[in-house]
Design goal:
Blueprint: H1 2-25, E1 54-55, E2 62-66, H2 72-84, E3 87-90, H3 101-115, H4 123-127, E4 136-142, H5 150-156, E5 165-171, H6 177-190, E6 195-196, E7 200-201, H7 207-224, E8 246-253, E9 259-267
Helix pairs in contact: 2-7
């Protein structure tokens, strides 16, 4: 009988601990970041902002930027950059989000959302991006308090988005589409004059949905691309007076605006 009572008591205590742990990670009613959002940070983070994670070639015509706390959104961003060959840059806040999930969810993140704050983005993030070089920008973020984190708003309001196409992508534990819709309104409000397309709201593991999303972006870009001169990215170059001038012909232009099959004709002695 004693053994039975001990076993029963152990079971009850163990069940209670599991319930407590679940409630601690998933705020009741879904009022925390993402309604139980698990894109959470590391406990006891550093006081200084870390250098932004980056990959790819800055000369790419597509940019992927993202804010992630634990790595879920980062996982999506990395996959998108790998599939597209885009330049990838992490949005890093000037003041890191420190502490446990509850510390951030019911502390700073909640206060920022309620006051529509604009927490500063690290200068290192801005230094990595020359936005004039990109026409297509994919913006990734988790859902915090029914919308995008306020630091994403800070980043978006920093730039002139005239004539640029923005594609948001996001995820959360609750996967509430109404919360994602709210985040889309937030992005459109912060990225003035941008063409903000319908975004992607899936789990990072759903690569089929992500691939379909990227195919739609590629199709839109192909059908609406305006060819730029090859020297458009070198507006800050220092041009030198030529001593010799040569003539070359290109046989044809590619669909992407590039030139192929150069034929050298020779030097022009009169110049």
């Amino acid at each position: 009988m004693k053994k039975f009572l001990v076993a029963l008591l152990s079971f009850i205590l163990g069940t209670a601990m599991l319930v407590f742990a679940a409630c601690a990670d998933n705020p009741p009613g879904g009022n925390g970041p993402g309604g139980g959002q698990t894109d959470s940070g590391n406990e006891g983070g550093t006081a200084e902002p870390q250098p932004p994670a980056t990959s790819g070639d800055p000369a790419s015509d597509t940019l992927v930027v993202y804010f992630s706390w634990s790595g879920n959104t980062q996982e999506m961003a990395n996959y998108i950059a790998e599939q597209t060959g885009a330049y990838l840059v992490e949005i890093v806040p000037e003041e890191p989000y420190e502490g446990s999930y509850n510390d951030v969810a019911y502390g700073r993140a909640q206060e920022e959302a309620e006051t529509n704050a604009r927490p500063a983005v690290s200068q290192a993030t801005y230094d990595l991006i020359d936005m004039e070089n990109y026409d297509t920008v994919l913006v990734g973020y988790p859902i915090w308090w029914h919308t995008a984190p306020m630091v994403v708003g800070t980043f978006l309001e920093h730039y002139d988005w005239t004539g640029k196409d923005i594609y948001p992508f996001s995820q959360s534990a609750s996967m509430s589409t109404s919360q994602f819709d709210e985040s889309m309104q937030f992005v459109r409000g912060c990225a003035q004059n941008a063409n903000v397309h319908d975004g992607l709201f899936v789990r990072p593991s759903d690569t089929d949905a992500i691939d379909g999303f990227l195919s739609e972006i590629e199709a839109f870009a192909k059908n609406n691309r305006v060819s730029k001169p090859w020297f458009a990215k070198y507006r800050d170059a220092v041009w030198l007076k030529p001593e010799l001038v040569g003539t070359a012909h290109f046989m044809h232009e590619t669909q992407s605006g590039g030139m192929r099959q150069l034929v050298w004709k020779g030097l022009q002695e009169d110049k």
